[in-house]
Amino acid sequence: MSLQPTTVPARFFETHKSGKIRCTLCPMHCLIGEGDDGACGTRRVTNGVLEAVNYGLVVSAGIDPIEKKPLYHFHPGSAVLSFGGIGCNMKCIHCQNASISTPRLTRMSDPLKGNELPWTPESVVQAGIDRKADGIAFTYNEPTIWFEWAYDVSKLAKEKGLYTVFVTNAYIEQEPLDEIGPYVDAYAADLKGWGEDFYMKFSKVPRWERILNAIDRARNVHNMHVEITTNVVPGWNDDDDSLKNIAEWIVKTIGPLTVWHVSRFIPHHELSHLEPTLPETLLKARQTGLDAGLKHVMIGNMHGMEGVENSSCPSCGSESIVRTGYYTKLTGLDGSKCSKCGAETGIVA
Fold first, then answer.
1. pTM
2. For residue 113, what pLDDT is reported?
3. Which domains, from first to last, does the chain contain?
């Protein structure tokens, strides 16, 4: 069956003095004229009204281990029903999911083919219950631009006892974040690099500090469980200053028990000409995090290295979680505390 966009009124916008519509969902602040769409490809002006054209449009769905998000310290060993859609509000030159993040819903000559529409909030939550999932994750592409649907699904999921996860670039404005915040339990956020210049060149977005604000607010206002991922790309964000700035900001703002995933870059999209991240670079990044005061720094996309598999108590060093691939065994936890010394681990078990 062909996928056709499903439209609902967009939630966050204002009318500009020019008569165009200013979208205020994310910091791009797209100014959109009649018949046009914003940078993410999911916001379109029709008859003077801003519409979200992607409500319930699912192109990828499946049961994942929560560790795949990656979330290592949030209900470890649990299963999450994951959904992905179309589009993104960034244009990252290394994107690993470009096949779904770059298409334009409102300007494609041929409709996508895949799952039937619509995926209603009720059908999503029921699918999670039927498949014995522990939660629902919005992932694969950027969930911020799926706001209207993600909000409805998250609210219903919470009512039915399922946890909710945003796997996100954190490029969202405060008002929408505050609206959905009470219904999101975990925020797996990318911090791709450091500074305005980096984000303009690497992800094609301004106002990068809003990302820091969103991550800060997710943790410290809405009490979400937050873990940070940095895909370490040779020549782009693997320098000492970038890694140190990221690590020190996490410690100061989110806390030393936050998991920082330093992930190996695999050549893709516009950076297919680069080599994969060297193991020694990932080890350097991990040590940078530890030196800054982080207690949990994990190496991603590279098995068999120190810091990849297991989690340990930040106080006495005893094992808290043993992992082999996505097989997870809790070995030393009493709730969120170490069963041996009683120290707080930061793990939501």
1. 0.94
2. 44
3. 8-52 (no CATH), 60-308 (3.20.20.70)
